[in-house]
């Protein structure tokens, strides 16, 4: 029987726009991240442009540029590609959906560029993953509503009756972020209330421990619904399409989905262990974080078993390599996070460099690899061009993998060293080391971390070049590839 998708002319206009945005913001966000990594190793690099080159000014630009620039652009690029193909309906069949999609992109770009300017100027709420002030929060809500209308509008006119598991995860991303972002960013603009201060300044509607609880309910679940849920949506589509293998177990994908939705929401309390929040909340955060291994590994194992009997593809296809290693890094990162949330281990790990080591293990290995793999898979099908160079892709993979290993291993060692030095006391209970002693001890690891970040950035430039050459210089193809993308040497 003919595949109905062969008779549908999909419109990838918006997917293309978000692909370009993803690459640009990836270069900006990772470039700033590499700079601040070297600033930690060599503090004099903080002073080349006064206050605007300080670590504290650049760090929010790095996190927001990567999370909300690179990651969200990648997620939306894949949605506007995957959504049409899985639901068997084209965006061009609805003028309203096309308008919503274009408005989604335009308002997003305006907001993210203004946000970059405000953060660079030092205008920030100082809340992790929620640094943007209230006018930008309103714009974010508009952007999110436009995306939601696009999701449910496309579902409403679909030809495919069943909703593939990737659609479930995209819907969960939309609903989870919408709920959590609204609650966490409840704030009072001070100028509107008091008539004094900047029009951009605001204060949170919560205070003290309540503010911390709401913030980390959001903060950790920004990781859940942006770093995790949406990326699972991607790999459940792109790995079967690239490998030609069906998902190992659809039932396991559903079990992992519902358990992930329930468990992840309550794990954020592990950020507040040994703080002033109630002890039962700290314990609940620890317990749910440990149990979180089950749905996380359920998804990862389901992905790995999809390649059962086809492991030779790992050697033959760089794209399969990217996706399988992404899933492996996901397993490592989630296990590591669960271990760090155990109270006795958290006492050693909290506030140390082991924590950013854990975050970057997942971000660079899981999110970064999967996003690049998705864009590589999409390029021949969206632009009707062969991938320019398999050799560049292969070199990129190994350079970035080495970079990730340098990064997280150095931060593991640095973090445990920090924790042990902070806790070390003599027979009289006096601390053996000053804070600066720990900083001096960590300097070699900061250099290894910075070099690892630089290697990853070099790999990303190789990725951007390969995509650019594919679009501009590669051979055109009439029939889209059925599995692994056709590549030149």
Automatic annotation (TrEMBL):
The keyword Transmembrane helix applies. Pathway: Energy metabolism; oxidative phosphorylation. It is a multi-pass membrane protein. Its EC number is 7.1.1.9. Coiled coil: none annotated. The keyword Ribosomal protein does not apply. Residues 216-489 form the Cytochrome oxidase subunit I profile domain. Its cofactor is heme b; Cu(2+). Keywords: Cell membrane, Copper, Electron transport, Heme, Iron, Membrane, Metal-binding, Respiratory chain, Translocase, Transmembrane, Transmembrane helix, Transport. It holds the Pfam family COX1. It catalyses: 4 Fe(II)-[cytochrome c] + O2 + 8 H(+)(in) = 4 Fe(III)-[cytochrome c] + 2 H2O + 4 H(+)(out). It is found in: Cell membrane. InterPro entries: Cyt_c_oxase-like_su1_dom, Cyt_c_oxase-like_su1_sf, Cyt_C_Oxase_1, Cyt_c_Oxase_su1_BS, Cyt_c_oxidase_cbb3_su1. The chain crosses the membrane at residues 17-41, 61-82, 103-122, 134-155, 167-183, 216-239, 248-267, 287-307, 319-339, 359-376, 397-425, 445-468. Belongs to the heme-copper respiratory oxidase family. PANTHER family: CYTOCHROME C OXIDASE SUBUNIT 1, CYTOCHROME C OXIDASE SUBUNIT 1 HOMOLOG, BACTEROID. This is cytochrome-c oxidase. It comes from Campylobacter canadensis.
């Amino acid at each position: 029987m003919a595949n109905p998708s062969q008779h549908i002319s999909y419109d990838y206009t918006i997917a293309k726009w978000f692909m370009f945005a993803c690459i640009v913001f990836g270069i900006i966000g990772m470039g700033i991240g590499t700079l601040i990594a070297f600033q930690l190793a060599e503090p004099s690099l903080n002073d080349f442009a006064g206050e605007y080159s300080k670590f504290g000014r650049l760090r929010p630009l790095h996190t927001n540029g990567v999370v909300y620039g690179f990651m969200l652009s990648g997620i939306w690029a894949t949605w506007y590609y995957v959504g049409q193909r899985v639901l068997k309906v084209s965006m061009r069949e609805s003028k309203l959906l096309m308008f919503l999609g274009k408005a989604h992109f335009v308002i997003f770009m305006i907001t993210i560029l203004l946000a970059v300017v405000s953060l660079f100027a030092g205008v920030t709420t100082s809340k992790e993953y929620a640094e943007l002030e209230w006018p930008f929060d309103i714009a974010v809500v508009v952007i999110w509503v436009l995306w939601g209308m696009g999701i449910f509008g496309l579902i409403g006119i679909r030809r495919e009756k069943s909703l593939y598991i990737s659609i479930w995860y995209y819907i969960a991303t939309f609903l989870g972020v919408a709920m959590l972002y609204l609650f966490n960013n409840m704030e009072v603009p001070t100028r509107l209330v008091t008539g004094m201060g900047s029009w951009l300044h605001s204060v949170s509607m919560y205070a003290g421990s309540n503010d911390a609880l709401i913030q980390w309910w959001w903060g950790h679940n920004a990781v859940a619904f942006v770093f995790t849920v949406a990326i699972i949506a991607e790999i459940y589509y792109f790995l079967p399409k690239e490998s030609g293998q069906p998902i190992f177990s659809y039932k396991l994908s559903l079990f992992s989905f519902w358990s992930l939705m329930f468990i992840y929401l309550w794990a954020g309390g592990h950020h507040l262990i040994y703080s002033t929040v109630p002890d039962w909340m700290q314990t609940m955060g620890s317990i749910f974080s440990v149990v979180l291994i089950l749905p996380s590994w359920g998804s990862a194992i389901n992905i790995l078993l999809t390649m059962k009997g086809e492991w030779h593809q790992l050697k033959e296809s760089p794209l399969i390599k990217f996706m399988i290693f992404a899933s492996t890094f996901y397993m490592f990162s989630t296990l590591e996070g669960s271990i760090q949330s155990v109270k006795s281990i958290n006492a050693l790990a909290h506030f140390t460099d082991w924590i950013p080591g854990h975050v970057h293990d997942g971000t660079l290995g899981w999110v970064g690899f999967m996003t690049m793999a998705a864009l590589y898979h999409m390029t021949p099908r969206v632009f009707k061009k062969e991938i320019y160079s398999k050799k560049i892709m292969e070199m990129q993979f190994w350079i970035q993998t080495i970079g990730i290993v340098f990064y997280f291993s150095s931060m593991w060692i640095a973090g445990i060293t920090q924790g042990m030095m902070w806790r070390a006391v003599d027979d009289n209970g006096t601390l053996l080391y000053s804070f600066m002693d720990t900083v001096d001890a960590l300097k070699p690891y900061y250099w290894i971390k910075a070099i690892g970040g630089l290697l990853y950035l070099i790999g990303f430039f190789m990725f951007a070049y390969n995509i650019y050459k594919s679009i501009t210089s590669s051979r055109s193809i009439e029939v889209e590839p059925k599995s692994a993308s056709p590549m030149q040497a």
